[in-house]
Write a structure and sequence with these properties.
Order of helices and strands: HEEEEEEEHEEEHH
Strand content: 35-45%
Helix content: 10-25%
Number of helices: 4
Structural class: alpha+beta
Shape: globular
Strand order of the largest sheet: 7-4-9-8
Length: about 190
């Protein structure tokens, strides 16, 4: 919960540094609860979705794609940003799933929603479990070259232990889905 001092001090001397299709970078002078003034940069990001798709063989549909900031191909769950402010998380999840894997979900279950990097970004991600998949491909975005890779939950655990699966949203999504499917309410990965 924010204190009155924090609420009153935010938004003063706010300057836009950069804007692109999914986020804006702001520079802002803020006053901390201690009275000290500081300048912070932060990212105003469109809301996002992440989808853990499980096919009829109980395999996860991971995607492999090159990520410029990491300089490598990453294994990930399908994910993406809302296209507009009026889009619902469910519609966005169905669209991203079809666009990135070629499947739509007959059953979509919300697993979790929260901030990814609140220290410098307000990106809010909605995690879904997609089941009863139906082949219904959409044309991928021009800047995406994606390979769909079905893996078992056991193989995903091996990929995590080996370091090949190192995308945080993907690890969280898989753990949430596994726990949901097994009616588990803890946060541990199987040994």
């Amino acid at each position: 919960k924010q204190t009155n001092v924090e609420k009153l001090s935010m938004g003063k001397h706010k300057e836009k540094s950069y804007t692109c299709k999914i986020f804006t970078v702001w520079e802002e002078e803020i006053e901390l609860a201690t009275g000290k003034k500081t300048r912070q940069s932060w990212i105003d990001h469109k809301p996002t979705v992440a989808i853990v798709a499980v096919n009829a063989h109980n395999e996860l549909l991971l995607i492999r794609q090159f990520r410029v900031p990491t300089g490598q191909n990453l294994l990930e769950i399908p994910a993406g940003s809302f296209d507009d402010d009026g889009e619902s998380p469910v519609n966005c999840a169905q669209w991203e799933l079809a666009e990135e894997t070629g499947y739509r979900a007959g059953k979509l279950t919300k697993l979790f929603a929260g901030y990814l990097l609140p220290g410098y970004c307000n990106e809010f991600m909605h995690f879904f479990l997609a089941q009863d998949l139906v082949y219904a491909p959409l044309t991928p975005d021009e800047d995406e070259c994606i390979e769909v890779i079905p893996v078992s939950f056991a193989r995903a655990a091996e990929l995590l232990k080996s370091g090949e699966l190192n995308d945080a949203k993907t690890v969280l999504g898989i753990m949430l889905a596994r726990n949901h499917l097994n009616n588990v309410v803890n946060f541990s990965w199987p040994a």
